[in-house]
Amino acid sequence: MSRMLDVSPDVRAEIGDEEAELLLSGETAPGSYDCTSCRTPGDSEREPTSTVLFVGDETAVLAFAHAKCIPSQVVAVSEDQLQGAVASITGEAPAVAAATAPEPARGQAVLGITSGLMLIEGELHPALVVEPTTAISRPGSDGPGDDFLPLLIEQGFIPVSDMAEVPSVLSGWSVLLAMGQLHAVLQPGAAGSNPVAWWQAHQALPVTDGWRAAVNRTQKVLVYAAPAGAIGQQPREDLLRDALDKAAANGLLVAAAMPLAGT
Ligand SMILES: [Zn+2]
Fold first, then answer.
1. Distance (Å) from CA 44 to ligand 1 centroid
2. pLDDT surpassing 80 at residue 199
3. In this structure, are residues 14 and 76 in contact, taking their beta carbons and an 8 Å threshold?
4. 107, 167, 203, 257: which one has the fewest Cβ atoms less than 10 Å from its Cβ?
5. Domain ranges in the chain?
6. How far is the CA of 165 from the centre of ligand 1 (A)?
């Protein structure tokens, strides 16, 4: 009956074999649920469903998602986010105590991320704009230069000279949305290992309903990156677009399209 439910090995390791078997036997499977990623209804008896374990510093919450939205996985979040998640997830999700909570991953550099919708080729695309708070130097170099864009170009990001074109998909990278919020931008792990966070939200980033709807339609996110100071804090989407146009014209913008994690 609950053959449709997937419990990944890392989720199983956190919740224990007993809990995993209860889920898989259907005893504690959720039946119908609100997908933790796209927030639309799902049914674990009728469609492939992923178990997603949100692990905070002290507690953990088990949630469910369409398998097509995200794969079964453990997502490390701050305790504050987790309390928010508990409040937002329906009462059906059992809270389980995690035996061991992983250290929350922290980015090496502070990257500011803004979400917005970009009108390109007559269609609204969900976009993220990434800008470090300070110049990023290449590991091992202590020069005054900013290597942020060259480093990204080495990873496969493409320089943008014209915002009128949709960037091409960067293989192996993805965007992790969970609980309807932005959690991480993932890059390929070393030599075929699991993806690792290139950017991880200290506090999950809320996105608008319009942004989420656009992702559901296009199934990918356009990620733009510019060096510190090139974009700045823009209070409105039209001003954000202006700043991006200007950065592109000045050769200070790179981009890549990324699918949602697990798709
Ligand atoms: Zn979903």
1. 12
2. yes
3. no
4. 203
5. 2-96, 111-259
6. 29
